[in-house]
Structures are given as C-alpha cells and as structure tokens.
Amino acid sequence: MSGPYRDISGPNCVVMERQAVLDSHAARGLNVEILQADHQNKADVGVNVARQWFDHGLDAILEVNNSAIAMAINGLTRENNKVVHLNSGAASADLTGPACSPNMVHWTTDTWACAQSTGRALARAGTKRWFFITADYAFRHSAQREATRVE
To answer: Which sequence spans correspond to the domains of the chain?
Structure first.
C-alpha cells in the first residue's frame, strides 16, 4: 500500500479485486471478503500479517509484489496448507523454481524470462564480458543469477 510498488499494485489492485468479486458470476453465493494490509516492503511484516489472517480463517492471498515477502508467504501458505497464494507481482524465478509450491500460482514475467530475452540477445550479438551492480535483495540476486546462466 506504500513504497515503490504502491502505484502498480497498491490501492488500485484492491479496487480491481472488489470489482472482480462484484462482476463475477462465480462469486454469487460465496462469502468473499477482501482484506488489505501494508507489508511496508518488509518480509517479517508481510509474513506476520499473513499468519494472522490464516489464523483467522483466510484461505487465499493475492498480489504480493516483493519477491522476499512472496517467498516467505509462499512457505507459510504451504505450511498451513491454505488454498492458494496467487502472485503476479513478485518476479524472482525462485518462486517457480526452488520455492515452487502446490499452494501457489505465479504468472507473468520472472527473472528467468527477463534473462533469457535480454541476456540471450546480448550473447547472440557477440557480447563476451558482463558485470553486474546488484542491489542486495531477493529479486536482484535472482536476476543476476539467471543472467549468468544464459548461454
């Protein structure tokens, strides 16, 4: 709800989710409640909110836009055998690789796809040497790792 991802997945997503519930024929007859929280881009805050929600009967979490928080919530979702963690905001390939879970759906782009498209194009163009200036957080570590694997 705040920070660098606010405009792409904050309050606007909540409005869209509420509208989707209203528009959905599948929601008729179901008790659907939409909750929102601000994880403040901190994994411990995000996983604590998710834990509290799970303890009170919540079954699904959507749109966690920070890879470190998404991985923490993914683990918690699996531990609690909750229905699903639907994630389109976090982009670490670890979510569909080592941290893959039957309790999570991850779609849209990830660091593997970005590395394959950009890295492969550069390699095919003859680029021989690479260097990285990598910020110290999950998404950037995943992006660097995936780019160094491009052949």
So the answer is: 6-107
6-107 topology per CATH = Rossmann fold (3.40.50)
| 0.70 surpassed by pTM | yes
| DSSP per-residue letters across 34-50 | ------TT-HHHHHHHH
What does the pLDDT look like over 60-114, one tens digit per residue?
Answer: 888 888 889 999 999 999 999 887 888 888 888 888 888 888 998 887 888 888 8
Crossing angle of helices 67-79 and 138-148, rounded to 10°: 100
104 in Cβ contact with 87 (< 8 Å):
yes
Over 70: is that where the pLDDT of 27 sits? Answer: no
Question: Order of strands across the sheet with 60-62?
Answer: 60-62, 84-87, 104-106
d(CA 39, CA 57): 19
Nearest Cα neighbor of 106 from 125, 91, 126 is 91
Query: What three-state secondary structure class fits 60?
Result: strand
- Residue 31, exposed/middle/buried by CB under 10 A (0-12, 13-18, 19+)? exposed
